[in-house]
Design goal:
One of its GO terms (biological process) is RNA modification. The protein is an all-alpha fold and about 250 residues long. It is built from 13 helices and no strands.
């Protein structure tokens, strides 16, 4: 019996070693990370991401980053999420998918201050995109959601109002300009956008008053006034020509 027991315990020991997963391309990495997330195996997602981030962090796709941030948010891993944020901070201004994922992460982890900071960055970018794509009403709607607008917010608002050229837009320009502290008028970009909005919305007197009272005039400010006056002269000339044609008949 002792011999049988000895033989049983002296059997060769078989050790199973788990081989690391082979990832041949970014596509393979993305697929595998999404599979882990879909199965709620969030720690495995992050383990796989960690294997590749040190070597490829600069070239990893937005999809890869967002999958990693999703996993961090799901398990409340603020430390890993913050580390990812530091590595890819230079990409935030051009990638709203990563930005949205970071906002979600910080909100999930109750870091409201950082979430709001990133959200402010996102809103600035969206407003400028609306203005650039001739959607000024949407930019104005976003501006109205901001409790404490800064110079950049105001400049984008004035640009949006300048596109609309309506009485409602002019009223908003005047209302907003009255709320700007006097010290902010030292910002030439802000003043230029305000002058441009006033001229395009038809309040020439107000624009000229601001222009002549400004102590630090820059070339763009002259340009805003000159273009506005030139535009008005063109309209006046068109009206004059049209009236002469009707008289000639």
């Amino acid at each position: 019996m002792l011999n049988a027991l000895f033989k049983r315990h002296s059997a060769p020991l078989v050790v199973f070693v788990q081989r690391p997963m082979t990832i041949k391309s970014d596509a393979d990495l993305n697929i595998q990370m999404k599979l882990f997330n879909d199965k709620k195996q969030f720690k495995k997602t992050l383990e796989l991401f960690d294997e590749h981030k040190e070597k490829y962090i600069g070239t990893l796709s937005s999809f890869t980053i967002t999958q990693a941030l999703k996993a961090c948010a799901q398990i409340g891993d603020l430390q890993s999420g913050s580390t990812i944020h530091r590595h890819i901070s230079s990409r935030l201004s051009n990638d709203h998918y990563i930005l949205a994922s970071l906002i979600h992460l910080y909100m999930q982890c109750s870091d409201v201050a950082r979430a709001e900071s990133l959200f402010g960055m996102s809103k600035k970018k969206r407003k400028q995109c609306y203005v650039d794509n001739n959607l000024p009403e949407k930019a104005i709607d976003l501006f109205n959601e901001i409790e404490y607008p800064d110079d950049v917010n105001r400049i984008i608002l004035f640009n949006a109002c300048a596109q609309l050229k309506t009485k409602e837009a002019l009223d908003l320009v005047k209302k907003t300009s009255k709320q700007i502290p006097k010290s902010f008028y030292s910002n030439p970009r802000l003043l230029t956008s305000l002058l441009d909005a006033l001229m395009k919305c038809g309040d020439v007197a107000h624009a000229e008053s601001l222009f002549y009272s400004s102590k630090q005039k820059v070339l763009p400010m002259y340009g805003a006034i000159m273009k506005g006056i030139n535009r008005l002269n063109i309209y006046d000339n068109v009206e004059l020509v049209m009236s002469q044609r009707f008289i000639s008949f």
